[in-house]
Amino acid sequence: MSSFLCSDSGKPTTTAPQPNHESSFRQPPPLHNPHEPLVVECPDIEYIDLDNASFTNGKDRILILTPLRDAASHLETHFRLLYELTYAHEKIDLAFLVGDSKDDTLAVLQDELKRLQAPSNPSRFNSVMVVEKDFGDDLPQGVEDRHSFKAQGTRRKGIGRARNYLLYTALKPAHRWVYWRDVDIVENPETILEDLMMHNRDVIVPNVWFHRFGDDGKDIEGRCYKEYRTHRTYLAWQAHSSPSQRLKHLHKAIPLDGIGGVNILVKADIHRAGINFPCYAFENQADTEGFAAMAKRAGYGVWGLPNYVVWHVDTQEKEGNLKGRKGGGDGR
Questions:
Q1: How far apart are CA 28 and CA 25, in angstroms?
Q2: How confident is the prediction for the chain on average, in pLDDT?
Q3: Average of pLDDT values for 200-210?
Q4: Which of 44, 167, 207, 318 has the fewest CB atoms within 10 Å, counting from its CB?
C-alpha cells in the first residue's frame, strides 16, 4: 500500500513503504531451533531431564526408605521380606537412617547388607545408602513410653524430622516412587509394590493389623487412642472380617484424612513439590498425619486399601485402647 504525504511544494508525493523496525523485534521466538546442540565438555555441569528421568526400560525406579532406631531385633525379618519382593530388584534403591540407637542396630544392619548386596547375589538391589544422624532424642523405647498418648506429640515430631532428613538425602531424579516401610513388619504380600503401584494414586496405604489372640481365641488387630476422639471412620474397621471377602474386595480404595507410617507409597514428585513430614504442628498434626493433611491441602489424593492387609509386630499396647474392637491401623 502506498502512502500519500504532503510536501513543502503542496504536491502529493508517493513513497515506498517503510519497514516497521519496532514490530520486527516483536516476532515470536522460533518453535524449533535448527542448530545442533552445543556440547559442553565440563565435568562440573550435569543435565537432568525430570520429564523422562523416572522411566528406565519400562520399569519405574522406586526408593524404599526406612528410619531405624533400636531396631536390631527386627532387621533379619525386614531383609527377608525385602528379598522376597517380586518387583525387579535392579529397579529398587534402599536407604536407611540410623539415629539415637542404644543397641547394635548399625552393626547388624551392616552385616545384613553385606550378605544382601554380595556380588555373588544375583538378586541384590540397585543401590543401598546408610545415613547416620542423631537428633538427641532420649525418649525411652519401652512400650508404655513409646505408645502412650502423652508421648505422641514429641515422639511423632521427632520421627517426622528423621523422615525428612532421610528423604532429602536419598531422593534422586530417577526415582518415580517413594515407598516408606517400617522395620517391624512381619508379613506382607510379596507383590505389594506392584499391587500398590497399579492404583496410580498420589498417596496410598494398605491396612495394617497385628496378630493378638484374646481369651476367646479371636484375633485382635490394630491400635487407636481413646483420648483422641476424631469422630472419623478408621480404615482398619472397614475391612471384611472374612478372608475370602477381603480377597474379593482386595483393591477397593477409599479416601483418607490421615495415615500412619508403617507402609506408604508416594509418587516421588509429591515429595519434590514440598510435601513432607512436618516436625511441627500442621493443622494440629505431625509426621505422617501431618503429611496427609499437607498433601490434601495441596490438592493431592490420599487413599487406603481396607482389605489389603500388612501385618505389623504386636507392640503390646494395653487392651484399654481397643475395648474389644478392631483398632485403627494405618489411616483414619
A1: 9
A2: 80
A3: 92
A4: 44
C-alpha cell at 168: 532429602
| Identity of the residue numbered 49 | D
The residue ranking higher by pLDDT, 151 or 268, is 268
The 3-class secondary structure across the chain, one letter per residue, is CCEEEECCCCCEEEECCCCCHHHHCCCCCCCCCCCCCCCCCCCCCCCCCCCCCCEECCEEEEEEEEEECCCHHHHHHHHHHHHCCCCCHHHEEEEEEECCCCCCHHHHHHHHHHHHCCCCCCCCCCEEEEEECCCCCCCCCCHHHHHCHHHHHHHHHHHHHHHHHHHHHHCCCCEEEEEEECCCEEECCCCHHHHHHCCCCCEEEEEEECCCECCCCCECCCCCCCCCCCCCCCHHHHCCCCHHHHHHCCCCCEECCCCCCCEEEEEHHHHHCCCCCCCCCECCECHHHHHHHHHHHCCCCEEEEEEEEEEECCCCCCHHHCCCCCCCCCCC
Strand partners, 303: 204, 255
According to DSSP, the residues that pair with 129 across neighbouring strands are 95
Torsion sign (Cα): 173, 184, 129, 169: positive
Are the C-beta atoms of 247 and 280 separated by less than 8 Å?
Answer: no
Query: How open is the CA angle 84-90-91, to the nearest 5 degrees?
Result: 95
Which residue, among 280, 305, 307, 283, has the nearest Cα to 294 in the 3D structure? 283
Instruction: Kindly report the pTM of this predicted structure.
Output: 0.78
87 closest CA partner among 186, 183, 176: 176
> Tell me: the pLDDT tens digits for 138-167?
766 565 555 555 556 567 788 889 999 999
Q: What are phi and psi of 150, to 5 degrees?
A: -65, -20
> At 57, which amino acid appears?
N
Burial class (CB in 10 A: 0-12, 13-18, 19+), 265: buried
The C-alpha atoms of residue 221 and residue 234 are separated, in whole angstroms, by 12
pLDDT tens digits for range 31-79 = 677 777 767 778 888 888 887 765 555 579 999 999 999 999 999 999 9
